[in-house]
Amino acid sequence: MENAQKKGSRVGILDELRGFAIICMVVYHAMYDLKYIFGLDVPVFFDGWFDVIRDIFAGLFIFISGTVCRYSSNNIKRGAQCFFIGMIMTFVMPFFSSGTILFGILHFLGVSMMLFGLGQKLFDLLPSWVGIAVSVLLFVLTMNVRMTYSGGMLHPGYFGIPNLFQLHFPMEAYNVGVLFPLGLHDSGFASADYFPMMPWFFLFIAGSYFGIIAKDGRLPKFCYPTHIKWLAVVGRYTIWIYVLHQPIIYFIFSLIFH
Fold first, then answer.
1. Which has the higher per-residue pLDDT, 121 or 41?
2. What is the pTM of this model?
């Protein structure tokens, strides 16, 4: 644990995992562009397992983003900056494709950072392991809040666990129109990148509690030094990579296919 103290606040494996997660997200968006902007057939894009893998890597990125909030002196400012960049993406996206981003990962992270900054003293009332357990439970309970379509009918989402207990949201909540940041929207809603507060905010908060453990030096020793330097560097600049990779990918594919 002495190594962690000498290196300050950095936990090498977190940077490396975040770098790995952002690379996976870049690959996903490259395939998205190939399919929906340049019209190439990408069969793997529609496989169910691919959606699962996408959510796993996105979840890892969100969890670590919550963890590193413990190392920031001003999460409200960081969150406002992140949300502002997300809004720029919202206005710029239609120039590159027919879709737009209404509440993507940057909007989500921005709001989550600000909420964490505002409520940190309240969150800190719970011990770290209790906070992780409660947050993970809430994540599971809110995984199915979005409306579903089956049997030719629309069905409201619910708070609960399938086949155990389900508290359904009223259909009116999905038609309000302004609750899409929470995961409540009608069938006409569309966003090229979408990470609603339910359930993802609870995974972010679970990461923030894990950050207490990491910052206190309670992780295994191998977690603190950097093992793959270039991957750790990527992990330290994830926001800029996320912002810049789409126009770069679009430019490269335009040169190739046009």
1. 121
2. 0.89
